[in-house]
């Protein structure tokens, strides 16, 4: 049962996991770097500070974002298979981002890359379409929700492909890199700009945990307990789109993190969303940098896209969850 | 006897066809009221309007002298408890976790329920005879057990009005009696008022002070249980001329002889 002590214990557990994962990720790579090299070797310094640290920081931000949003979406839709990828939020973000690239919008507005704004717009458009399609009156049909998400992802994929064909070679290559999902990034500049979207998005998300806890049990009862369900819905859409849009714009649509991580957290610490959501953020951060370490080290010199690794772990888990109809009656 | 809730000329429609039409009623503090009527006559919708989960198209609900929509929703939840007829059960929350949400109107946004809240939740579970279910996952409970947990959640809200939508439909004989006994005790302790939708007319014993009957979105009969549960009134409410009613030891037994 949820108590402040349990929350603190769970958070402490995931902080430890997170620190260990970060340390491991910083040590992993094709080029082994010893601590002493950093003081003497200029190349090692460049690799470590310009490539490896930004990559790990990006992994932490993206993983935490996707897992936190996944936990929130599962509660909001009362659907254990919901997550940014399966609901088409990621697809919408990818479509928006590739439109921005194709139009040559490498520009910034007041320090915010236009590609972030386009990705956010794509995400929020897609999540609202999915929701409209799946809701009949005040009831959201879980099966239709996932089906609508899958189809919108396909549409987004086709859209991205068309844009790729029409744009020039550089643009096409950049778009291709996104679509597989990778944490390849140089320097901390872009990662820092992501915070403009991530910080408000995450704060919004964390402000809804109590309400989501009630909604996850039953929407009608939550409303009777004083929760403004429509307002929570809008808050979660806005927060998810802010967070997922910008992570997709930088790292591509990395799937299944938002599915795997909240399920693992619930297994360990129970169903209370006031614990599940903050813990999922920490656990997701740890999970993605570990998955990326794996992606970077499995093939030696060449590296796998981290999106492929998460999909290879998450896809089978999705199927396992699908067979548990007795536990999750609503799928 | 003071009026706890007064509804005036309520109208409501989900799409275009009206579901509740021109319904006015008063609930007296400390009274137990029943609400009967055929399937789809608007009983559940009326409850949703009375607890503020749905907003009427026109008409008003006044609770303790205040317009319902003027009461802040969480404050409203401390005064009106509502148990919907159907609830989604997707995640394996424990029964105690579900009942504890009844304390959320009393708990600030970033806090957890305290020891006192947990005591109240356990008492609420005991009041419906479900204390043994506390640690069980609600997804593994039977329909009746889930309903007990839902009622316990509403009891934990410690509201002055309970709106129950067929709370005992899936209860066995013993738990049905236990629920009514607990509600009666709360009426004695703190003047609890109850409005209960029911298809089971036998449950309407001397505990109930008043009975409302709906048909086609309208209130068509109102009075004491004895007055409403007559063959002629029931034949009209259910549009069934074959209804038979028989009073035995203060209870009315009703059946249809078709």
Tell me what the structure shows.
The complex is a heterodimer of chains A (331) and B (258). Chain A is mainly alpha-helical and 331 residues long. Helices cover 75% and strands 2% of the residues of chain A. The relative contact order of chain A is 0.18. The mean pLDDT of chain A is 85. By secondary structure, chain B is of the alpha/beta class. Chain B has a single domain (3-86, 158-256), classed as Rossmann fold (3-Layer(aba) Sandwich). Chain B contains eight helices and twelve strands. In chain B, β9 (210-215) and β10 form a beta hairpin. Chain B starts with a strand and ends with a strand. The model of chain B has no long low-confidence stretch (mean pLDDT 92). The chains are: A mainly alpha (331), B alpha/beta (258). Chain A binds chain B through residues 1-4, 7, 75, 78-80, 137, 207, 210, 213-214, 216-228, 266, 270-272, 274, 327-330, and chain B through 14, 51-53, 72-77, 80-84, 86-94, 96-98, 100-102, 104-105, 107, 109-113, 118, 139, 150, 153, 157.
Instruction: Report the total helices of chain A.
Output: 14
Q: Which percent range describes the beta-strand content of chain B?
A: 25-35%
Order of helices and strands of chain A: HHHHEEHEEHHHHHHHHH
Q: Do you know the CATH architecture of chain B?
A: 3-Layer(aba) Sandwich
Distance between the termini of chain B: 42 Å
> Strand count, sense and closure of the main sheet of chain A?
2 strands, antiparallel
Structural class of chain B: alpha/beta
In the sheet with the most strands of chain B, the strands line up as 6-7-8-3-9-10
Arithmetic mean pLDDT of chain B? 92
The CATH class label of chain B is Alpha Beta
- The percentage helix of chain A is over 70%
| Count of spatially separate domains of chain A | 1
Q: What is the N-to-C order of secondary-structure elements of chain B (H for helix, E for strand)?
A: EEEHEEHEHHHEHEEEHHEE
Please summarize the sheet with the most strands of chain B. 6 strands, mixed
User: Rg of chain A, please?
Assistant: 19 Å
Would you tell me which CATH topology of chain A applies? ABC transporter involved in vitamin B12 uptake, BtuC
Residue runs with pLDDT of under 50 for 5 or more positions of chain B: none
β-strand number of chain A: 4
| Average of per-residue pLDDT values of chain A | 85
CATH level-3 fold name of chain B: Rossmann fold
């Amino acid at each position: 049962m949820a108590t402040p002590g349990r929350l603190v214990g769970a958070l402490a557990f995931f902080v430890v996991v997170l620190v260990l994962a970060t340390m491991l990720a910083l040590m992993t790579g094709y080029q082994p770097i010893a601590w002493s090299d950093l003081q003497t070797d200029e190349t090692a310094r460049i690799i470590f500070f310009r490539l490896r640290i930004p990559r790990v920081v990006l992994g932490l931000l993206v993983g935490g974002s996707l897992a936190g949003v996944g936990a929130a979406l599962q509660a909001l839709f009362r659907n254990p298979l919901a997550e940014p990828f399966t609901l088409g939020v990621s697809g919408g973000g990818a479509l928006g981002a590739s439109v921005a690239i194709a139009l040559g919008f490498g520009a910034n507005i007041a320090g915010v890359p236009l590609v972030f704004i386009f990705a956010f717009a794509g995400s929020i458009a897609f999540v609202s379409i999915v929701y409209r399609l799946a809701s009949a009156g005040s009831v959201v049909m879980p099966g239709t929700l996932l089906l609508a998400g899958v189809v919108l992802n396909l549409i987004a994929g086709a859209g991205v492909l068309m844009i790729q064909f029409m744009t020039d070679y550089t643009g096409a290559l950049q778009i291709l890199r996104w679509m597989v999902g990778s944490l390849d990034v140089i320097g901390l500049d872009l990662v820092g700009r992501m915070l403009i979207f991530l910080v408000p998005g995450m704060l919004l998300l964390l402000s809804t945990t109590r309400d989501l806890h009630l909604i996850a049990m039953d929407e009608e009862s939550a409303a009777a307990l004083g929760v403004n369900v429509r307002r929570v819905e809008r808050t979660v859409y806005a927060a998810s789109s802010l967070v997922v849009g910008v992570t997709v714009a930088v790292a591509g649509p990395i799937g299944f993190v938002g599915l795997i991580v909240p399920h693992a957290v619930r297994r360990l610490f129970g169903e209370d969303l006031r614990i599940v959501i903050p813990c999922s953020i920490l656990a997701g951060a740890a999970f993605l940098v570990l998955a990326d370490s794996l992606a970077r080290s499995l093939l030696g010199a060449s590296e796998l896209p981290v999106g492929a690794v998460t999909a290879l772990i998450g896809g089978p888990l999705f199927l396992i969850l699908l067979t548990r109809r007795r536990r999750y009656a609503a799928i | 006897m003071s009026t706890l809730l007064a509804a005036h000329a309520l109208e409501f429609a989900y799409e275009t066809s009206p579901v509740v039409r021109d319904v006015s009623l008063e609930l007296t503090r400390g009274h137990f009221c029943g609400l009967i009527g055929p399937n789809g006559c608007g009983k559940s919708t009326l409850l949703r309007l009375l607890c503020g989960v749905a907003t009427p198209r026109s008409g008003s609900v006044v609770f303790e002298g205040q317009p319902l929509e003027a009461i802040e929703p969480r404050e409203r939840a401390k005064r009106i408890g509502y148990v919907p007829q159907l609830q989604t059960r997707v995640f394996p929350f424990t029964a105690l976790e579900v009942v504890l949400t009844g304390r959320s109107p009393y708990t600030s946004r970033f806090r957890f329920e305290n020891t006192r809240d947990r005591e109240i939740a356990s008492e609420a579970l005991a009041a419906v005879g479900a204390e043994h279910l506390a640690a069980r996952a609600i997804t593994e409970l039977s329909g009746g057990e889930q309903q007990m947990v839902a009622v316990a959640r509403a009891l934990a809200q410690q509201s002055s009005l309970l709106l129950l939508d067929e709370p005992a439909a899936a209860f066995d004989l013993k738990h049905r009696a236990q629920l009514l006994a607990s509600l009666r005790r709360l009426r004695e302790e703190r003047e609890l008022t109850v409005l209960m939708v029911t298809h089971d007319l036998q449950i309407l014993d001397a505990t109930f002070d008043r009975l409302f009957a709906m048909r086609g979105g309208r209130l068509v009969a109102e009075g004491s249980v004895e007055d409403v549960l007559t063959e002629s009134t029931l034949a009209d409410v259910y549009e069934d001329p074959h209804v038979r009613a028989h009073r035995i030891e203060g209870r009315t037994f009703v059946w249809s002889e078709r």
